[in-house]
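pinning this so it doesn't scroll away 📌
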Amino acid sequence: MTMQENKVRTEGEIENVTETEGMPEIEGMKETEDMMGSTCEHLVGRERIVATDGVELWAEEFGSPGDPTVLLIMGAQAQGVQWNDGLVRRLVGGGRRVVRYDHRDTGRSSTVDYAARPYTVADLASDALAVLDAFEVDRAHLVGASLGGIIAQRIAVTAPERALTLTSLSSQPLGTDTAAVVLRAMEGMPPAPDELPPPAPELLTALASAFPGPDTGPEEYVALRLPLWRVLHGPVLPFPEEEYRAMERRVYERARDLLAGLNHTLAGAADGDSTADLASVTAPTLVLHGTEDPMFPPPHAEATAAAIPGARLVMVEGMGHTLPPTLDTRLGDEILRHTA
C-alpha cells in the first residue's frame, strides 16, 4: 500500500527531548491564559496541519523520530489534546514517538458540512492514515479510545500493513450500531437479541443536557459539561474536578465549532463494517477497559477481545469512560508493555 499524498504545513518550534535522571523529558511547556482568566501549562509538540480529502487536520508529535511511533486516536467529539500530557510523557519516556491529532469536526481541524459532505468511520480511518503519512510513518502502534478504538480496529482490518500493534481502549467491537442501541435505550426499549448492553441510564440523562448552545460562554460551557464528566468518570475513583475544568477550558478555547463533533455520531451510524471482520486482524491486540465504564459496559470489551484472534483483555479496576490523570502511569505502562 502506498502512502496517500498529503500537503503538510509545519507549525511551531521543534522541541527537544533531553535526559533528566535517566528519563527523557519533553521540553515545550506553554503557559496560557484562557477566557476565564485561568492560567495553566500545556505540553507543546512539533505541530503540523495535514491536508487530506478536502479537510485540514491538526496534529503534533513528541519524542525522537527514530523511535517506534504510537498513534493516539481520540473518541467521538474529542480533541487530540484530551490524551493527557502525563500519558504522552510516559510513552515518550518509554522510548516511543507519540503522535496525537484532532479529528475533522474537532479542535483546530476543519469543520465539515455533513449534510453536503457526509463521512463515515472509513473516512475517519483514512484521516488517521493521512496523519501517519504526513509524519512519514509506514507502520505504527495504534491506540484508540472509544470511537478511536473502532477507527484503530478498522485500520487493523483494512490496512494491516500499517498496524504494528492494536490497543482498543474503552471501546467496543467494530460494526456495533451504537446509535441504534442508544436510541432504543432512550425510548425505554429493551436491547435487541444478541445486542451488547446499552449505556447506563444516568449517562443517557447526563448526555441529554451536556451540549452547549450557539451563544454559550466559557463559564457556562464548563458548568454544563462537568455533570457529564462525573458520570463518565464513574463512582469508584476520586473525581478530579479541577483537572476536568482545565480540560474543558482548553477544549472550549481550541474548538472552531463545539457542536461539529456531533457529526461523529452520524458517521458511526453510517458505518457498514461488521464485527466478523475482526477475525482477520493479525496485529497483536490489547483490549484495555474500565470496570466502571458507563458508556460501554465490560461486555463490550469482552466481545472485542473474543472477536480478535489472540487478543489480550486487561480490565482496569475503577476506571470509567474517561482517562483520569491518576491512571496515566498505569495506562502508559500497559501500552509500553504491549508495544515493546
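📌 and the second one:
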Amino acid sequence: MDLIAIFAFALSGAHLAVQKDFDLFGTVILAEAAGLGGGLFRDLVIGVTPIAFTDAGYGVAPLTAALLVYCTARIRWDQRLFDVADAAALGLFSITGTVKALSYGFNWAAASVLGAASAVGGGVLSCVLARETPSLLYWNRAPYSLPALTGAGGAAALHATGTLNVGTALAAALFAFGLRLLSICYDWRTPRSPIRRNPFSGMREQPAPSPPRSAPAFQPWTDETPTIHLPVVQVPKQRSSEDTVRIRLPRLQPARGTARHRERPQAAKDPRCDMDGTASDRTRGE
C-alpha cells in the first residue's frame, strides 16, 4: 500500500514540475519530494530510520513516475487523472501513517494528527519547492486536509474499538478517497472566518469611495430639447465717428536717477564756432 501511494503522489509532483517547465532533474526532485516527504516526516517524528533509506523500492517508485510524466509531457493528460491519483494516495497514506504511529505507542489523537500530516506532507513539500502556496491553505479550493483527517480519525477509531484489520483499513481509506473526490466534483468549500466575509465587522465602517465622474453621454437633438432664445443685435454697416472712442494716454517720463534720465555727454565743440553753433567772424574772413 505504501508503494502504491508513493507512486500516486509522485505522479502529482512530476505533473507540477512539468507545468513549471522544470528539467528532468527538477522533475525527479519534485516527484521524490511529493512521494517521500510525508513518510520521512512521519518516521522522523516517531524516531525511527526512514524506510526510504533502507528499501530501494521507495526511491524507485517516484523515479519511475517522474520518467513516465516527463517522457509523455507532449500528451495532454487530463487533470482529473492526477486528481484521482492524488486522492487515492491521500486516503492510503492517512491510514498507513496512523497505523504505524499507533504501533509505536502513540495515543489515538497524536496518531490521527501524524497520519494526516504524513498524507499531506509530500504535497506541501513539493509545492514549497515549486514556490507555490499549498492547496490545503486555500479556502476557495476543494478541502485537502479534511479527507486526510477523516481517514486517520477513522483508523484510530477502529483501533480503539479493536476492529482494525485489512478490510476495515481499506474501507476507511476508500471513505477518505471518496470524500476527496466528492469535494472536487461538487466544488465543496470549508467555512471561512466571518471577519473575512465582512471586513468592517466589529469596526467603524468607512464611506465607500465615490466613482469617478465620467463625461456626459451624447444626446441627439430632438424637438423636445430645450432651447435658449437670444436677442438679435443689429450691427451698423458703416462706422461713424460717434462709434469710435479715442483714449489719450499720458506719456510716461523716466524717473530721475535712472539710466534713461542721465544726460548724454556733449560732443567736443569746434573752436571755430560760437556757443550757438554759428561760425565766428574770424572764420568767415578766412
